[in-house]
Amino acid sequence: MVCGGFACSKNCLCALNLLYTLVSLLLIGIAAWGIGFGLISSFRVVGVAIAVGIFLFFIALVGLIGAVKHHQVLLFFYMIILLLVFIVQFSVSCACLALNKEQQSQLLEVGWNNTNSARTDIERNLNCCGFRFFDPNETCSSDCFRSHQCQPCAPIIEEYSGMVLRFVGGIGLFFSFTEILGVWLTYRYRNQKDPRANPSAFL
């Protein structure tokens, strides 16, 4: 059977959702590994990562069940949710790739001022204190604070922020195109007839 047939559409959709399932489990596993080894102490960051992983897992599960059973209602909701996720992810990915140095610096400073637990993780892992300036009168969890010879964290973070944003934006852009591919595959698959099914059956 040619690749435009019913079986090929079904297999491609199943493979795509299996990929999403693996990515979701990987995301949950990385978050659990980070908090298990003490790399991340912020439960908010871990909670967001795990929530995104669970959300992606359920989307993939809906798509997988819909593809296996050729269930019109599940496939319809899967297609709509995937389209909404594509719009959000594509917008965020483009924003990550479009940020200049000044915007990155402002965004990092806002994040620094609003996340105490993440600030502690950064100071401990990068061995720095303060964002723009080192103040020996403030508390700091880095090792260099004992000798009061710490450098501020902003230059260290900004050195890697551009690379991280490009990486995150590129990965997000790649997966956003797989999502629009999934929307197209689902739309085509919903309109195809199962050659082995009852011609009068809809669901």
Automatic annotation (TrEMBL):
Its main location: membrane. One of its GO terms (cellular component) is membrane. Keywords: Membrane, Transmembrane, Transmembrane helix. It holds the Pfam family Tetraspanin. The chain crosses the membrane at residues 12-40, 46-68, 75-100, 167-187. It is a multi-pass membrane protein. It is found in: Membrane. This is TSN13 protein. It comes from Penelope pileata.
